[in-house]
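BUG: 3D viewer hangs when loading the predicted structure for this chain

Environment: internal workstation, default settings.
Expected: structure renders.
Actual: progress bar stalls at 90%.

Input used:
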Amino acid sequence: MQKPSIPKGTRDFTPVETVRRNYIFDTIKAIFQKFGFQPIETPAMENLSTLLGKYGEEGDKLLFRILNSGDFLSDVSDLDWAEKNPNRLSPKMCGKGLRYDLTVPFARFVVQRQSEICFPFKRYQIQPVWRADRPQKGRYREFYQCDVDVVGSNSLLNEAELLQIIAEVFRALNIRVTVKLNNRKILSGIAELIGQSDKITDITVAIDKLEKIGIEKVNGELLSKGLSMEAVEALQPVILLSGPNDEKLDKLDGLFACSATGREGVVEMRAILAYADTLKILVPIELDLTLARGLNYYTGAIFEVKAADVQIGSICGGGRYDNLTGIFGLPDVSGVGISFGADRIYDVLARLDAFPAGIVQTTKLLFINFGPTGEMHVLQLLAKAREAGIHAEMYPEAAKMKKQMAYANSKSVAYVAMVGENEMANNHISLKNMATGEQTTVTLEEMIRQLTSGNGL
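Structure tokens produced before the viewer hung:
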């Protein structure tokens, strides 16, 4: 018989892993709530018409499509089938797809529920997304995103608040990071500067890969997309500008003499950086002109966060999108948001061995089962312990002591309670500290005080 398996790029999570993941989710959620954001959820699948065309050509290829229920070939002609053209077959066989991110479904949500929403609307959403990507280390086909967005406000204070959230989340998780910033208007200005405004999408998609594939391959991709050698050469000194953020912006100011869009991007970056300085955001913030975030819907500031101590892709990213709800029939509603990649954050914490001690402990107290004679007595003690807020259980069978203690060790149980005939006769409990091996005789009330005080943690 063939062993069961799961699809590549997906994972099971053990109890330890799940508790650690919940620690990440709970930490992020608490900070979202502190800044006044409210939770929503959207379906795992959306109509393909909602998803297609929002992520660029490369993003569309990564959408998981769902076959229509019933006879999914009913709209496929013999000619279509004979041609075996996936671009023609897919729309006729698939009307729905798994969500690629949480931002586009959120835009759809806002448009559908605009009469119920008070703007500006601040929402957070923590749910899985799916991408038909090639699985590799740190890149999965199913993964969680933790999104926070504001829609219905043009204020750059929102961008500054997102920088605060980034700083607080990673400080709480004890991860050192660098925040990279850019602006799509600056990128548009660069495209104008080299006379290639019509190639803005090709330029952003290519330069966004600079860190991954290097400058030579980026230049090769730009040439393959129809940019002239002169344009590619003119691009080099601009995207590779170095120095402090203010110096880079000063140089761009001079270059954008003939680009109103580019100058607008520079003004926005100066304002965001000034807010960050006023708020004393204690994470490095770097203006990176190669940062493009290839998604087509970004229109203003864009963010990306890199871990300082682990080589891995971005662990948080996002930006401003002015036109996303417009494609669903609600124009002139600007939004800005960021997404924390929970799975990559988990990988960073695991590699740094930075999960807090004790968070994996789910059972604090285990009562040993000595058989039917004492079960009823122990069940009452167990109920009292749980009423006091202690995570407790009783081993379900009167197995050998060695087996029950091995069970306690496997679950990292902090204390084991033994109540035999002598203990029952005297209303006592023999309590063993599994970390130190120390065993004491206590009353129920003394045990509860010890396990609910700092001494029992």
